[in-house]
Structure prediction request, 973 residues.
Amino acid sequence: MSETVLRSPSKEALDTDVKDGELPARLAATWGTAAGLIGALSTVDHKIIGRRYIITGFFFLFLGGLAAVAIRLQLARPDNTLIGPDLYDQIFTMHGTTMMFLFGVPIGEAMAVYLVPLMVGTRNIAFPRLNAFSYYVYLFGGLMIWIAFALNIGPDNGWFSYVPLAGPEFSPGKRADFWAQMVTFTEVSALAVAVEIIITVLKLRAPGMTLDRIPLFVWAMFVNAFLIIFAMPAVMLGSTMLILDRLLDTHFFNQAEGGDPLLWQHLFWFFGHPEVYIIFLPGTAFVSAIVATFARRPVFGYSAVVLSLIATGFLSFGLWVHHMFTTGLPQLGATFFTASSMMIAIPSGIQIFCWIATLWDGKPVYRTPLLFVLGFFFIFVAGGLSGIMLASVPIDTQVHDTYFVVAHFHYVLIGGAVFPLIGAIYYWFPKFTGRMLREGLGRWHFWLALIGFNIAFFPMHISGLRGMPRRVYTYPAEMGWDALNLVSTLGATLFVASFLVFLYNVVVSSRGGEIAGDNPWDASTLEWATTSPPPPHNFDHVPFVTSRELLWAERQTLPVVAGLAVDKREVLVTTTTQALPDLKESSPDPTIWPLISAIVVTAIFIGSIFTPWAVAWGAPVASFVIIAWFWPKSTEENV
Amino acid sequence: MLDRRSVLLLLPLILAGCAGWQSVLDPEGPRADLLANLFWVFTAIVAAVWLMTMAVLVLALLRRRAARADPLVLEPEAERSMARAVGAAAALTAAIVVALTLVSYGAQRALFDSHEAELTLLVKGHQWWWEVTYEDAQPSRSFTTANEIHVPVGEPVLLKLRSSDVIHSFWVPSLAGKMDLIPGRENLLIIEATREGVYRGQCAEFCGWQHAHMAMTVVAHSAEDFERWRESQISAAKPPDNPVRKRGMEIFLTRPCVMCHQIRGTPAAGRVAPDLTHFGSRLHLAAGTLANNRGNLAAWIIDPQGIKPGAHMPLVKLGAEEIEPLVSYLEGLR
Ligand code: HEM
Ligand SMILES: [Cu+2]
Prediction:
């Protein structure tokens, strides 16, 4: 085995001192999660938290999907009275809110939490306790909004909650407050995870993983984390102003008192447009990984893809006004946003071309993950192109806020995020569980999903053009929209049914699936260099990266680094660009305090909906638990 | 006055409910025409791009080639030609994007260049109906109506859009694109019809419970018919012409109806609900929710919340024998 040994003056047992046979067990004991409930709740293992994150994300996808089914049932026939306006408005709001805030953003981060530390070859994520905290905050925020819905006080102003409709005058009661606080919850957790990802990528990469050896997956998640950091504060500001308007009688959005309802739209969409890229960039991460593995060659145009990712990130902040083309903006300004919106097609296009080139030159292996990526091309490219149409101010004045837009954004969201995500689950399930998903069921899932999706959403383009606005709880028979809507509903049913196949597959395969082995797809990135599922410490020896496609380049033995402590949690910090070994840093032990902090924060957030005093009384408690969390232990610094 | 005959003539159009009714694809005015053409140009181009991309993808999958023994052994010549292909595709994308931006900008100039028109209407959005005021230099000649807009054919009509509560959006797709009504602001929109007919539109910005039932009708007439209609609307309501209707008027004036509705020529002067002065001449009631006929009108008065849940018209308790005269009276307000 080729080894690079790090020398250090420390007196503890290092992996160089331990026999190879003993090492895994001793590392696992150091990095493991204690048994029992307290142990489970205290864990700081990024894989365990990542798995919970992923399962929770799918749970919310499932709830959001049920809401979609209810929407489609109500719209299946004209003048339907199945669901009245009050409930319908709550349902479509819960659908959009859940899909965007509780599924779309968190699921990308969840996959990153699990996979990024493995792919960069480290033993845990940076700030693992913050990671635990962010998961609990996300879970509690999501539960809060769904419990409110179950109690018939769910939000009902749509997922972008325009004022003044969502303001104190037109939405009395607590519904809009729950919505605004749900945003705060997701904010806190999303920002925390973004910081963890950025630091993990910048400082915890395995030695040798220079910037140009970072896998495209990691690049995409890294850029995505920056988008989150820059976009989220805008909506946090907005939702705080909304809460203040509603609870403390401020007038940020009240035009009668010198406020401005359009301010909300600017703040919301300054977040909301990058938001859709926040949902899409993880999709590109999955596609890059899957295409390389199943085309049996590295992704063509590595630098072009990375630069496109970064360009997409920047451009996504210059487009928000295209959601506001019908608000009566000055025309010249609007044209600027037409141009910038269309321009983002260029970096997205370059990525697509590079992937197609990869498939062209490679020798595709048609397994389920690749099928879902092909579905992604089919659907996402269509959605991107209808986006080009929407970027045109004149065309947008006709189709804005109609079912044409509903069709468009489901093509990009489901095509760009959900299809790659499902491909990713088929792809990494063996790593997560040690077992393969069944291929035959996977194919059924794919074809039902592809066909069901298009039957559900293609007709919506037409119903939109034929005058059907979005967010209507019913429509008169004489509008001539019934056939289109019925077809949409049937397609949606098929689409949802395909997910039952998936669920079944996950359940049977996690018990009885074929044993996967370390690297069932013969992939090249580092997560496949360890066992499936990985041990608590991820790698017995931290790998030494000599190539971008390490597992393809080093087929005989993997070069590794030695010299890390065995009996205490220690990770290797490397330099930002060259990834030279820099420090050995201790990684925090498990603790229950993140959970307690999350509970306290949740109590404050929910309490503040009912009384501002919740913040005043909660603050000292929160300070107390946070002090407990950070209470210094006497650890000596290793350099 | 809009004569019965023309209403009857329009009826089939209303019932047919398709062509020109509420569709981007059935433009019936110069602006909607322009928009439809632009739409088709874009559609053709993006469809071609989609087909090309998919064709290349399918070719990439079907291409015969030998399996690669080592995924890392790449052929420099092939890499170079792929780089050229990707570069060309990116350049083509950029060119298409620039061209479409210019085309779009040209159309935008043509659409929004002028906001000049002979006829100016003030359209005010309410949860969930439309108040329409025909302005006139002579105040005595301006009047207010609701949920129905009449315009002369072939003439641009300027709408000044305002809102009294939340954000709404005015959209009659066969005549023009949409424009929002935002509290505290005034937006402008020009609509124009090239043919006589009835065009339906509906609120396009979610505005609460009855967003789905916030429609409006645009009736386009010849210039003469329009003038006749306008004159009839300027005049106050005629007094009831038979005892049943007279009784109906008494009921209207002694019940809570007067607190919200206005009927010019009577003491009813409420302004928070649709003006009913010439209610009988309108095609629909409750902002396009129902066709305007005796049965529907009676049903609406008996139970507005059953028909349009959440609407800001309360249930007014009336005796069974009071419905008939009230309906007759309202029907007679032509
Ligand atoms: C079973 C699959 C799905 C179906 C059948 C479906 C159907 C629909 C329909 C019909 C609407 C329009 C509701 C209305 O305007 O009244 C809608 C809205 C929406 N959908 Fe979906 N959807 C599905 C999955 C998704 C997914 C996976 C996402 C995101 C990742 C998503 C995001 C949204 C958003 C953001 C809205 C807008 C909600 C609003 O107007 O506030 N949907 N969906
Ligand atoms: Cu409205």
Observations:
- Chain B has three domains: 23-58+77-113, 119-229, 243-332.
- Chain B touches chain A through 88 residues (CB under 8 Å).
- The CA atoms of residues 34 and 110 of chain B lie 9 Å apart.
- Residues B 125, 168, 203, 205, 207, 211, 214 surround copper (II) ion (ligand 2) (CB under 6 Å).
